[in-house]
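Usage

Read records sequentially. Each one opens with the input sequence:
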Amino acid sequence: MTAHSLADRLDALLPQTQCTKCGYDGCRPYAEAMAGNTAAINRCPPGGSAGVEALAALFGREPLALDPACGRAPDHLHIALIDETHCIGCTLCIQACPVDAIAGANKLMHTVLPDLCTGCELCVAPCPVDCIDMVPAGREWTRTDADAARQRHDRRRRRLERQHGEPAGPAARTLSNKAPVAAMPTGGADKKKLIADVLAKARARRQTT
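and closes with the structure output:
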């Protein structure tokens, strides 16, 4: 079995949440690292113990306990929910989403498409006004979900590579994330102060509602 075909089989066993908790920039890079014997099989929290067992079986090895450094296995699927009344339209969550599950535009409120969200949590930290929460999805993540998420992730990766002329890893996402801030008018004022003022107003609005 070639390393490429082994990576394909490993990738097919991963949940395709693209959460990067394994330490790699998506499920496929993690699968390739396992195929190359440079990554352990117990670094995927969304896959849980069942996922580790499936990977171990493919390798013909004994399963390992999930690496606690990568996080805990979720009890249920959680998806992102944006409090649209407090969204300032910065687009940072859209840029962070690895599967294009957030709709919106600059300076317009955003919304998560619940059927597409993988629960990766990557949109939570970039939100400057803390208006994104992870809530129970009320359903389980299926292999059909995983296959669809892989396709959306691949399409997004190809799009970012075309836009930035480089692999669509953290560097490309950083370029995308800088765009909304760089486009903000400064009017000669210090840009950091302008951003701080915007965030302060947004947080104040949250406290009064």
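Summary fields computed downstream for this record:
- The longest helix spans residues 143-164.
- Confidence is low (pLDDT under 50) at residues 170-188.
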